[in-house]
């Protein structure tokens, strides 16, 4: 149970105060923010991060990205992109395997969360409106062919294959960056998190029950603080969870 003092500290944290006991040196931060990229580089970054791709959410093992872009942005207004550079971390407690698997992949915030001042977060947050999107021609064609098959059985199977290839949903709010996620039992994880330092994360690899995954890196980086520093130095956009 958190006391009032902890809550007030978290409010400062969300406003961008640097409470990190081991702040990240300036040379490890990107000097080319998104707003200063040219239009071609911006478009390439968004596509590489699967902007407007579908996501499959039919299983308990977590979300799976589809293989195709499913929509296009048709509004003449600029994209709602927020560039964030502050101190942030999230500890999420879940109650079942499905929620745990989705949280582990950054998809779902559920149950109970606590904020700890040991992560630097520099990322892009993109927000879309449904009315500003339209399906691409290839997706419309795939559904049209599936629904024009002669029998209900063939239609159902073909439609399922469309969702399997293209995804079930399109995220309307999502973050772009590299990420490091460690999932473990609550009792073990809280012992490590008490250190409040991203440089202490490598101790989690000593836990036999920990699950470690990265985007833009490899779990072996947790073997030493030097590896973590090197990884952060190569990462223009980063999120540590």
Automatic annotation (TrEMBL):
Residues 53-128 form the MACPF-like domain. It comes from the Eukaryota. InterPro entries: MACPF_1_fungal. This is J domain-containing protein. It comes from Rhizoctonia solani.
């Amino acid at each position: 149970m958190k006391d009032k003092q902890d809550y007030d500290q978290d409010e400062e944290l969300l406003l961008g105060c640097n409470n990190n006991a081991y702040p990240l040196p300036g040379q490890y931060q990107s000097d080319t923010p998104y707003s200063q990229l040219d239009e071609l580089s911006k478009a390439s970054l968004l596509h590489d991060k699967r902007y407007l791709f579908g996501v499959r959410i039919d299983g308990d093992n977590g979300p799976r990205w589809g293989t195709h872009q499913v929509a296009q942005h048709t509004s003449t207004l600029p994209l709602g992109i927020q560039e964030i550079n502050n101190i942030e971390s999230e500890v999420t407690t879940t109650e079942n395997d499905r929620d745990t698997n989705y949280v582990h992949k950054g998809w779902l915030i559920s149950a109970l969360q606590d904020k700890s001042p040991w992560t630097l977060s520099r990322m892009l947050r993109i927000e879309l409106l449904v009315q500003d999107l339209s399906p691409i021609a290839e997706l419309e064609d795939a559904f049209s062919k599936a629904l024009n098959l002669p029998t209900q059985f063939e239609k159902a199977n073909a439609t399922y294959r469309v969702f399997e290839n293209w995804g079930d949903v399109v995220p309307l709010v999502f973050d772009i960056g590299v990420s490091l996620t460690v999932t473990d039992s609550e009792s073990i994880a809280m012992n490590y998190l008490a250190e409040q330092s991203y440089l202490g994360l490598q101790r989690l690899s000593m836990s036999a029950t920990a699950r470690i995954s990265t985007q833009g890196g490899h779990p072996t980086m947790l073997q030493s603080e030097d590896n973590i520093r090197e990884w952060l130095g190569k990462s223009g956009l980063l999120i540590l969870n």
